[in-house]
Amino acid sequence: MNHLSEQPLTGRTIVITRAASQSADFISALESYGATVIACPTIEITDPLSFDQLDETIDHLYGYDWIIFTSANGVEYFVRRLQHANKSVADLDDLKVCAIGQATADKLHDAKVHVDLIPSESKAEGVYSALMEFVGGAERLQGLNVLVPRAAVGRDYLPNALQNAGARVDVVTAYRTVVPDDLDRGRLSAMLAGSADCVAFTSSSTVRNLALLFDTNDLGKVFSGIAVACIGSVTAETVGEFGLRVDIQPGTSTVAALAQAIAHFYVR
Asked: What is the pLDDT of residues 145-160, one digit of tens each?
């Protein structure tokens, strides 16, 4: 069932934890299903402590065969620094470009950057499999120079897998995810204890920062009686690590699919 003829989220309150700068599409998708949305960002996207490493990498792009973007944020910060160095996206013409998923690919297309590969599975394991298939087997990864501009903290699966296959991988910090300064734990507690029907997580960082905020490794008590929605399997895994059960998870890792999955959950 792809079409929802009514507004199944009317009377439902959905708490979203996504960064404020990236919430607009998610909020409007949920509101189109009739939801009341409370935005309570548990992460903020900000500059790295230093751009030195990224700037140096941008000066030596000719040394790479592939550049892998693992998020739309990585694209945004990378392109911004490229422009800061008075370079253009044409400097990426000689590189193969991989985007972890459609949202990241869309961001690259908006920036006029070509995309050679979008894995069918939007996570690190999917990137590795797709890359291996693209080049014609694991042995062809040997000797490739790969650049991964990403958050200061990220999963190690992809760089490790590529290095184990003999590739040379440079993981460079393009941005940081931090806990917003103005996050109010009291307000959040009251909200969760009060009207919230569902809380939606769009990344592992949003979950971890919430646990940090409540100073607990068991969010089960905090979210008693509230449905938990996750954008994808990596986020769902993190949710499980912090004592929560996933009630809602779409087949596709996009906010549109997540909003639709939440709507379907309440139709049932």
From this structure: 999 999 887 778 999 9
Same fold: 13-43+180-267 with 46-177: yes
CATH number corresponding to 46-177 = 3.40.50.10090
Q: Closest by alpha carbon to 75, among 119, 47, 106, 118?
A: 106
Q: 146 φ, ψ to 5°?
A: -120, 135
* Phi and psi, residue 48, nearest 5°: -65, 165
pLDDT tens readout for residues 169-222: 999 999 998 888 877 777 677 666 777 899 999 988 899 888 888 888 899 888
Report the distance separating Cα 236 and Cα 59, nearest Å: 38
Instruction: Please identify, in words, the CATH class of the domain defined by 13-43+180-267.
Output: alpha beta
Query: Burial, 140: exposed, middle or buried (Cβ in 10 Å; 0-12, 13-18, 19+)?
Result: middle
For Cα atoms 132, 253, 123, give the angle at the middle one, nearest 5 degrees: 30
Look-up: residue for tokens 């290095």? 163
Rounded-to-integer distance, Cα 67 and Cα 78, Å: 11
For the chain, which residues make up each domain, given as ranges? 13-43+180-267, 46-177
Q: Which residue has the tokens 């009686």?
A: 225
Give how far Cα 84 sits from Cα of 79, 87, 134, Å: 9, 7, 32
Q: Is the separation of the CB atoms in 8 and 263 below 8 Å? A: yes
Q: Which amino acid is at 88?
A: S
Structure tokens at 123: 């996570």
Distance between CA atoms of residues 199 and 138, nearest Å: 40
